[in-house]
Each structure stands twice: as C-alpha cells, then as structure tokens.
Amino acid sequence: MTPTGILGGSFNPAHRGHRAITLAAIRALDLDECWWLVSPGNPLKDGVSDMAPLAIRLASAQAQARRAPIRATDIEARMHTRYTRDTLRKLQRRYPRREFIWLMGADNLAQFHRWRGWREIARTMPIAVIARPGYEHQARASVAMGWLRRFQRPASHAKLWTTWRLPALVLLRFRPDPTSATAARAADPDWHRRHPAQQPRSPLGD
Questions:
Q1: Is the peptide bond before 167 cis (omega within 30 degrees of 0)?
Q2: How far is CA 43 from CA 46, 59, 81, in A?
Q3: 136-151, pLDDT tens digit by residue?
Q4: How do strand 2-9 and strand 33-38 relate by DSSP bridges?
C-alpha cells in the first residue's frame, strides 16, 4: 500500500503556500506523495466571479508541483463527481493499492459541517487538519470539531495514521505561511493570463 495524501481545492491560483504545507504534511505523515485535486467547481463557492477556468487552475497547480512528490490532477472532472464524499469513495475503488489520508486547512474544518456527508468523509479515510493563521479558534469551536474531537489523535503519532481505526483526525501545525489565493489574486489580477489555456496532462500513478 502506498501512503498518499489528498488535498482538494480550487487552486485559484495555486501558490507557494499550497506547496509548503503539502511538503510539510508529506514529512509529518510519512507520505510517498500527495495528490492535489483541482476542483471543477466547489459547491460552497458557486457564483464566485473571479474563478479562472479549470484548465488554467490545473496548469497553475502543476507549475507549483514541479520537482516535488506532488501530482496535480483534474480527476474530479474526469470522474464527474461534485462532492468530496463521492470523490474519495471513487478514488479508493480506483486505486486499491493506495492508502489515502484527506488533508485540509483549518479554515475548511471551520465549515466542514456544511459539506455534504461530512461524517461519511470522516468514516472513509483519516483526516489531517493543517493549522492556518487566524482560523484556529473557529476550527476548534466548529460544529464538526465538536463531533470529531473524540476521534482526535496526537500529532506525535501522525506517522502511524495507516493503523488508525476510523474515524480519525490529527491536527498538524507547521510554520505559518500567510500566503492565500485571495491575496494572490488581489496582488496580480491577471495571473491567469500567464498559464496555458489548453488542457494540461493530468497523470496519476497506480
């Protein structure tokens, strides 16, 4: 079994913060690699006016993933899944030789209870939550954390995640990185013009 992290997001655009937290998670969890799932459309972000086309966001993610054990993919669009719960189930069926752990930022934990089937996600694979500046209080006080708290594992045992009984949650804290996609778009509104519009190759290994 190949230990593999999964980090989903809009990547609008992908930036150095995505890369930094992913590499830190790979070390903390002893992963072989991490897959970035570039979302065709986040149900909680429907109507966002400055969302770049999927092909451009994917190209941005693949550029950030270069020379790292990170694979950026549009597999959600290829599998025609809209909700994380369905995506993770399909990935487990499609890649039975991999052991997956779901990665998400503390900002997502704060609203995790709004995700469709969020308890099912927690029962599907372990979850590693990565601290983000300004979101710790919201994450710890969230509806989802109220339920997940009983399943929390110590960060010192993070490398043992493949042995955990589900549900299982671990909170990881790395050196803070203030980079955000919102700030990146504000600083460079034309970022998407520098990435190719054609569909980039989107490989995933077995």
A1: yes
A2: 5, 22, 11
A3: 889 999 999 999 999 9
A4: parallel
